[in-house]
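Shapes recur. One chain:

:::
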Amino acid sequence: KRQLVILAHANTATQRYGAAAAAEDWLRYLSKIHTEGGPGPDNVSFNTVMKAWRSSPENKGADRALELLNLMLKLYRDHEQVAPCQYSFSIVIDAFAKRNRPKEAEDVLKMSLAFSIDPEHAAVGPEQDTVFTHFVADLRPCFNAAINGWAKSGDNNAPERADALLFDMRSIGKETQAFLAEPDVLTYASCMEAYARSGRPDAPEIVESRLYAMLEQHRNQNGRAPLPNRTVFDIAIRTWHKSNKKFRAERMEELLR
């Protein structure tokens, strides 16, 4: 029943100030009685409240979501319960990204990597002295949320930061031999979006070259690599449209064929 109260408050967080806080109050109450031997909140409860803060119109939403993520880590360290999953981290990353705070979003991504990946599928917790054994199989939602945060930030260094995270994804996928963070079409689209919004003179050429590189990679890997979708083509066409280059119409027509 207490879980239903949390859900009821969380479901109104987008429209009502204070709803996310009310849901958090119940979550913290369950966490407290759990440490005293009573029933405690589960992973779903934490994710529900963190999503409420992500969707909340309140500016502090991302910071409150991060506080709850740290509480999950503490409860897991002290009681070996409610371990965060990749979705937990991605919620908080997206909360910062939506508030145009890409650096903090990337910092939470680093937390997810520290918690989820090392050669033995263990990780070091936020206090750097506790080894966890929780293993997250798919980190793409975390990476994609962080890259999207940079792409839409308008930061001058957004393209470089997005590309750096793309490089990290490829490296992790190769090192683990498990495709834990293999880039997908959303990854490539977000990196292209970072260039599209940068206003750089060479942005149209870069974005179009990325599109054709995806096509070539898809062919070379017998369909295993992601194929450009409509969103990718739309980004490339829009980038040419925004430019002032004389041959932009021809390039847009070519992409439409």
